Amino acid sequence: MSQPNYTRVSEFVIVGFPSLQPEYFVLVAWLFFFLYVTTAVGNLLLVVMFTLERSLHEPMYIIMVSLALSDIGFATVALPKLIARYWWNDGSLGFHTCFFQMHMIHYFGSLNSLILLTMALDRYLAICFPLRYPTMMTNQTMAGLTLFCWGIAHIFPGISTINFSLMPFCGPNKIIQAFCTTMSLKSLVCVDTSRQYSLAFAVAMFILYVPLAFIIFSYICIVISVLRMAKGQVRMKTFSTCATQGCIISIYYIPRFFVYVTPFIPNLTMTPDKSIATTVFYSLFPPVINPFIYCLRTKEIKQIFRRWLQKRKGVMPTNLRGHCDYFYV
Questions:
Q1: Gene3D superfamilies given for it (predicted)?
Q2: Are 163 and 179 in contact (CB under 8 A)?
Q3: How many alpha carbons lie under 13 Å from residue 10 in its C-beta half-sphere?
Q4: Residue range 157-201, pLDDT digits in tens
Q5: CA 229 → CA 132, 233, 322, 326, distances in Å?
Q6: Does the pLDDT at position 324 exceed 50?
Q7: Alpha carbon distance 128, 144 (integer Å)
Q8: Contact (CB, 8 A) for 258 and 199
Q9: Under 8 Å CB-to-CB from 300, ≥6 apart: which residues?
Q10: What are the helix (H) ranges across the chain?
Q11: How far is CA 115 from CA 63, 108, 238, 311, in A?
């Protein structure tokens, strides 16, 4: 039996929000531009500070710099084309460029999940095993874990990228999404993609929610340890930080779950605009505020900022204390 003769799509077009009126395009472009600049500047500031200050060369800051670089990478892959779509009405992406963006979007999503897992492991060891922590989690150990995360995160999205790049795309070529993703390209394939999508869904659930299970476990252990050992103000600060970080983790994981499972639940539907808004929210909101939640609230970084300001004013700074208590901020 002869195979169908498909005309291969040479480019895709990012549509973005399908119901958005043209008079709001420039406003939306400025919003995404502001998000990109804020994400890049806030996270780059942490990277520069880590490079210049030897006192920050500790395992916890290695994780934070890794998260900052990942957030910068995600924003750089996702936002420029979206900004161009609304600023200059240029949403076109070449065939291979779209798949590269798709791979990198899912890559940084997987990487962030692994980084959050590593961060939870570091917190768990520091709080629950404080005496053994310095020997268990050295700079070399954390650097090795970080490099492992950056490498292995390519494997899982790579499977979906290769599978979908081999599928026939014969038109239409308009992507009803803010960027190229597996879900947005699935509807443009000319053949049945249920097997490929089920595989991509299973991989996404594994890379997202196995780390989440350990993160929840680590929080439970930390809360129990703090209730046993800490008292008064230390306990309140720990719970405050735990609640703040828990909100960010919830924003990262919970909306993703609803977006991913919607196609599998018959009575659960989501309009394209709501789906895109949800995707943009859980993708771009954490990178914007991560520097403030994980970094700029820690005591040592605030002391470094204070010292830099004192130097500019010609005031002699006080000595910094080296510590590893970023959970108590």
A1: Rhodopsin 7-helix transmembrane proteins
A2: no
A3: 0
A4: 888 888 888 888 877 889 999 999 888 888 888 887 778 778 878
A5: 16, 12, 22, 17
A6: no
A7: 22
A8: no
A9: 55, 56, 320, 321, 322, 323, 326
A10: 25-52, 59-87, 95-128, 133-136, 139-152, 155-165, 182-186, 194-229, 232-261, 272-290, 299-313
A11: 7, 10, 21, 34
Cα–Cα–Cα angle for 241, 245, 247, rounded to 5 degrees: 120
**What predicted TM-score, i.e. pTM, was given to this entire model?**
0.85
Q: Which of 26-40, 273-287, 301-315 has the lowest mean pLDDT?
A: 301-315
Query: The tokens of 80 are what?
Result: 């420029």
Q: 218 is written with which tokens?
A: 């680590």
Q: Are strands 11-14 and 92-94 parallel, antiparallel or unpaired?
A: antiparallel
SS3 77: helix
Phi and psi at residue 320, to the nearest 5°: -90, 145
- Residue with structure tokens 């500790």? 58
Amino acid at the residue 42: G
Task: Provide φ and ψ at 93, rounded to 5°.
Answer: -135, 135
Q: What is the CATH number of domain 11-304?
A: 1.20.1070.10
The tokens describing 183, both together, are: 């879900």
User: Per-residue pLDDT tens for 199-214?
Assistant: 878 888 888 889 999 9
β-pair type (174-175, 92-94): unpaired
Is the preceding omega at residue 172 within 30 degrees of 0, hence cis? yes
Match 């940084």 to its residue by tokens: 108
- Token pair recorded at residue 162: 């290769």
DSSP 182-231: HHHHHTT-SS--HHHHHHHHHHHHHHHHHHHHHHHHHHHHHHHHHHHH--
To which residue do tokens 């390209």 refer?
A: 185
